[in-house]
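ok here's the first one, seq then struct tokens
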Amino acid sequence: MQGNQSKKPNILFILADDHGQWALGCYGNKEVKTPHLDELAENGIIYDNFYCTSPVCSPARASILTGTMPSWNGVHDWLRKGNADTSKYPNMKDHDHFKKKDHPINYLEGMKTYVSQLHEAGYSTALCGKWHLGASTYKRPEFDKWFTIFGGGLTSYYRPDFFEDGKFYDSHEYITSGIGSRAIDFIDEFAEEPEKPFYLGVHFTAPHTPWSRENHPERFWNLYEGSSFESAPRLPVHKDQVKTCMVGYPEERRRENINGYYAAISAMDEQIGAIIAKLKAEKLYDDTVIIFTSDNGMNLGQHGIWGKGNGTYPQNLYETSVKIPFIMRNPWFGIPGERRAEIASHYDVFSSMEDIAGLAISKQNLPGKSLFSRDEKDSIAVVFNEYGSVRMIREEKFKLIVNYDTQEETLFDLQDDPGEMHPLSNTNPIIAQLRLKMENWFAQYSRPEKDGRVRNVLGTGQEDLDLFNPEIAFYYEKEQRSTMY
């Protein structure tokens, strides 16, 4: 993939948080303002059919890094515990995240990440931003530089709990600006060794909640004052909507949520522009592959849902929850401004990173394939997704969702019904074909002891490696969550 380059390419990997594909200008949204990401798309490739592996933060992130499915790596839900030993940081006792007991759990212990592969190949490596895979105070050996936050969620954009230089501190800077400025600092350090390739993972928390006005700079909030927000539909609340999400009812709350969501995206877009400008100023841009994606999608009224995959119980795998942006500028691949229709997934990132660096593709039992070594048949590839007992297979035309708790099967024709408004008959013979194909695939790329179908994944968070024993204290929430409205 590198051609005749003498030096391996630098890699800038930008990961948003809860950013649905539909909420970007280059994907057709006329309301959200994302000039820098739109420019990146003009200079790179847009993937129109890119999917996460699970529509919630931590499982999606684990899959990106390891190239494995949740039912292989065991991270099935967002991680509510396992971040750090809160007793060791008395200076943080007044911060909400440190008021509860916690202890570090390395959820990816013993697993290879693509960053491991890059580091072994001579890359300088850095994490800048959200980790949310446990043990945030433990700098994994494949990272030379480590700047992160305590866990996943935020109480306020203006009160991040940053972990830097071996300690937590209670910051009052806008978190998106803080992550962006540290990323620029890391580029300064990388520029001191221009002959050595670098990998920089910039993991923003935007546009995750909270979305209220006081959480975002006024100038970004004001970009959307007076907007009609027609890009987000007004639909009755979904029958399975859960009460833990920022539901957009009544209309005033709907407008506040969408305004805050878009403001967070625009603020992140500005920081991305500044990071790319820094690459250009340091004469690193032409040697750098830039990738922008999100961990999972988000519903702001689509299907009547507010939230992502766990915005409902049972969890949902609608396109708006599982389809995410993927924009890549690679000077050695593709045509600037090209749109690619091939179906691909975050589990393809692992092999793609190895390919970018000119490494031999791993011979592990991984489901993904490099984006740079596909033939015509791959343009109609199959993609898979899971969240606990709910699994999905999507081919070029049809998409099947199976809930293994209830054995409910839902089939959509995505060519005739891209909005998934009209499920096909449950007697359609394609259901049996797709289900068999899906079950054979998962049999190859999951492990019985990690199988999400039998581990009581509720969408309410994972506390440890063995969370899903039926005796867990909050198992009763399963029934409560299904009866909000």
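and now the second one, same deal
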Amino acid sequence: MFESIAEHYDQSGVPWFQPIARTLVELLEPRAGERFLELGSGRGAATLPLAEALGPHGAVDALDISPSMVRLLGEQLDRSGVGNVHLALGDAADPQPPGTAYDGIVSSLVLFFIPDPVAALARWRDLSRRGGRVGISTFPVPTGRLRELLDLVTEFAGPAPSPRGESPFDSDEGVEELFSRAGYSVVRTTTVAHAVAFEDVAQFRAWTMGTVLRRVWADTDPAGHAEILARAEQVLARERDDRGRMSLDVPIRYTLASP
């Protein structure tokens, strides 16, 4: 999936992955000179703020499973003149980075894609130095208008496949339990609501292509898309920001742990 959408991933003009990842980086408090591992680097939402925070004497080893994501991020790093990032192809489920004993490991909106998250977290723990920290971002159970939009997807595209049944990602306690089972000693969770603003429904549609909402376009008859957009606009237009843009609050769960 990520290989197929890499060219357009996070390119809608709507700040989305960047503020989520930036908050995760800030919560982990990277210090100049430290060494971090990023798993699922995508188009660099966490990579760039990490590289800046760590400075020229620090380093980021960034891995992604999609060759196109790696290529596109590499081109961006070259254009930006960022020299403290080592970028490579790699699987977050069982990463094989160039080093170990990382001061921090960052993985934004990735863990819920991994078939065995406990095994992955245990592997990440093995790559961390004693006293290091690991941080992830995930989605809480949606409520409010976000829930209405997801219900719209279900109405038109049908329910999303749920091969795992009840998910540990349904609650803070469930995610923290994953870390505890993987051997982490200190785990804490905080939730931050990110406001996502759209100039119009066309921009909303472009934004959805990088989210789970993309199913509403991929799995439905194009003849019904105008109605879907009209219904979505009714939901979004109930709240606007100070610039008059349609605004949607999306809560993000941040789970931080120490090995």
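notes on #2: The first strand starts at residue 35 and ends at 39. The first helix runs from residue 2 to 5.
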